[in-house]
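Re: export button greyed out
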Amino acid sequence: MRYIRSFKEHALLHAMLLPGLILVLLYSYYPMFGLLIAFEKFSGYKGVLHSTWVGLDNFEYVFKMPEFLPVLRNTVLIAVMKIAGNLVVPIVIALLLNEMGRVFVKRGIQTLIYLPHFLSWVILAGILKDILSPSSGLVNHALSFFGAQPIFFLGDNRWFRIVLVLTDIWKEFGFNTIVYLAALTAINPSLYEAALMDGASRWKQTLHVTLPGILPIIVLLGTLSLGNVLNAGFDQIFNLYTPATYSTGDVLDTLIYRIGIVNAQYSVSTAIGLFKSVISLFFISLSYFLAYRLANYRIF
Amino acid sequence: MHSPSMSRRLFVVFNYTFMTVLAIICLLPMLNVLAVSFSSAGAVSAGMVTFWPVDFNLHSYSVVMKYGTFLHSLVISVERLVLGTVISLTICVLTAYPLSKETEQFPWRTIYSWIFVITILFNGGLIPWYLSVKQTGLLDTIWALIIPGAVNVFNIILVLNFFRGLPKELEESALIDGANHVIILFRIFLPISLPSLATITLLTMVYHWNSWFDGLLFIKSPDHYPLATYLQAVTIDANSLKNMKMQDLDTLKFVSDRTGRAAQIFLTALPILLVYPFLQKYFVKGLVLGSVKG
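Workaround output, generated via the alternate export path:
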């Protein structure tokens, strides 16, 4: 009763929510309903409701695909390496930036290292393909100057995953330092004075004052990144990989794209997508739960 | 104060050197591409170009402008950016306002909030999403690049947290004076939320400029690609210039696929570089605003 009465009372507030709700229903909830085609032999002509129901056949097909396990392995491997690198490197860089006394130099360096974050992977992939090219690229020119053999970074399966992880860290580390730098400035200066009184060196101060001071934010970002264990970075990989590097670089998202859009096998692609969404749901929920428990974090 | 120890001095020297090198590593690839775009094809393929143009010329840029669909894609990108940013921002503000109310004042708030938050936790994936865009008739129209992504729940959360931080008295006194919620939102809340709205506006603009996958997915004809999608097709295609049907043989001496591509990469990145100072300023502010909450 309370809800019905208040509905009339707040007609204007409901009306304001209407556009957002309609879009969310159409482009978020309707696709969730569309997941049904993972259990069907989908035909565009018959539609979601009338296509033939095949139960778990599509999933059986997916799990028996020879590329499925390697792709899952690539996904987790690349994602976990990126999560670790993107957590540790920004902390180190933020600490080093914090030791820089000259504000002008510090600002300049910060400005430069944020930049790659705002450029899209299409632009960065275009640049990387150029400078990493084995015949004419800048990096291999530099290597040959030191007498090394040219390396086909984007075509060699021994190098491809390393390049993916390093270039991802290169794109994001500067941006990720922002949060840590904000946390560093919030540390009470009297703690450092006290440590200095006790004869603590700069290194000891870092270890016993600075790091504990930013530990809550490290824990928070660490737990929140847990939700990305199956996100290896579609934009980056799609723009850098080639059939030669499928064996080390093909991940769930790129496989979903090729099977679904290129081969138009809608049901199989959706089955892989559902597999990914369900596992991601578990990890995202876990990450928010842990963030709430460990760092008292709430979305709102 | 005693003078710094030897090890401290060594550390400071190392630190400044290391950080400078790091900053340069973030800049050099961009400089290399810029130098390539201004150099002649011969100098580039001979490997003479590093960070400074050789045989400086603008032919690559004029070829890109004259032939192919670069300019057309640029127009489409600007169009989607303007329309998309206006629509996204309007929906963001309209959604954030009711959700920022206390549960006692607006009991439906909790249900609505969950409807939006669930979309962060779970989604239908690529094919069902594609089908929903297709079935709503947006395929091959510019609206396919604007409408499906118009609701950004993270931006909504940022704005609603900002609204919640505003003094309650503002709203109460306006209500007593007979103002309704629309007036309160547009006359009182929005004018004092400009810094946080500026952050979101810039982020949305960058999102629209950089988005390429929706163009690839929803637009069939490459002639109607937005710029980012166009560039994506160019960087994957090794012979993109051959498709441009150049007649002018003179320019071929100066222009190769590599210089042409470099020019297009730089032109696509340029708007981001131009708004970058604002981005940086508002971004840090916006992040701090978003993180200060109860």
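Residues 289-294 of chain B have pLDDT under 50 and may be disordered. The button fix ships in the next patch.
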